[in-house]
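Agenda item 2: shikimate-3-phosphate complex prediction
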Amino acid sequence: MSAETNSVPRPLTSRTVPALSGTVRVPGDKSISHRALIFGALAAGTTRISGLLEAEDVLNTAKALTALGAPAQKSGSEWQVLGRGIGGLRAPEGPLDFGNSGTAARLMLGVVAGHDITAELTGDASLQKRPMGRVLAPLQQMGLGVEDGRDRLPLVVRGTSSLVPIVYELPVPSAQVKSAILLAGLLASGETTVIEREATRDHTERMLRYFGAEVVARDEDGRRHITVSGDAELTGRAVNVPGDASSAAFLAAAALIVPGSDVTIKGVLVNPTRTGFYLTLKEMGGDVELSNAREEGGEPVADIRVRASKLTGVLVPAERAPSMIDEYPALAVVAAFANGATRMPGLAELKVKESDRLAATVAGLTANGVAARAEDDTMIVEGAGRVAGGGTVETHLDHRIAMAFLTMGLAAERPVTVDDTTMVATSFPEFTGLMQGLGASFLAPAEAP
Ligand code: S3P
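Presented output:
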């Protein structure tokens, strides 16, 4: 059952605290966790995963794969997926419910497309509003059948074991769309190519190679061409999931804005297609230090130390957006504590996340006395070096909006309330506990001063 269906909203208030300090680990990266499970199901043999993110989004993927005949279960401290080999999944008996997760729904559309099965895919109220046409269009070109021509969940789709390979230029910078096509391409005969104008996270390419698929990426005419060979064979592997760079962003933001803080986050994924946020913090004058850089399972990992800093507003280049798309709510909060304007152009994709994050972020800032606005696809935050706080933020079933504004309350002059924290369980169930361990203070609104 998804968080939302349980749900009586759970508001929470955060208030100003003295310095945050300590060394922590964040749970496993969500993007990599989904992929480890899915690729494990498509591989021959068992895949063992340590550090899997045990949050609702990922648990829904495990359930869906189990329903498709590839059991994904926890065994001791690791997860195991009993892979069925390429093309080996079977029709599910009931609908596949992906809860709040766009990544799971879209990647799994690519998987279902290449199997001779009919499946119904559904999700929660947030996911049912999100565009699926962006994955359905290329997958239909490859041979996927879609009932009723719908482009939103719930959807009934019919896959085929004779998918046709395509060459497809992404109209939007989306790793989910790229990954859905590459997954379908594994199951097609011949070579499938995805062309990206802006590089998006490349976990699919890295991990598919690790599982034994042939994936070649080359740059041509300023675009990235990624080709996967069909009729692939994947072999079950051991995967060690690094700490989630997007979850770590909230801790880093908190450490920067709460005076006197000094926080180290160990073992964080620092794949360059995911680190735009940390680069931007440095440009703002943030004391952000990466150390102990290493590679784990084909992904770069490092420890990140963040100390409270005096910050200045910056212009964040639009082309950096794909490498930090999930971090804009956290960045906007940091920008509110900086001096001067931070301009963030190129944010069209932010409008189609778990909520319209551009609107939700601006509204949350405004409710707390920060001068912020959206101009088309640009977010502008006029940092004044301080935040009044005292407002209540509408989270719109969006985990990252909830976590960003709870973070803001830790350094605002008056407490900040978010209307519902239920969805935090979709990506970072340990969020409040970890933050409290560093010195944060969260209270149910009735207890707040
Ligand atoms: C993800 C890709 C991004 C990101 C999402 C995870 C992935 O979405 O926002 O949280 O794992 O591929 P888009 O591909 O839609 O940009």
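Discussion summary: Residues 31, 103, 174-176, 179, 201, 325-326, 349, 353 surround shikimate-3-phosphate (CB under 6 Å).
Owner for follow-up: CH.
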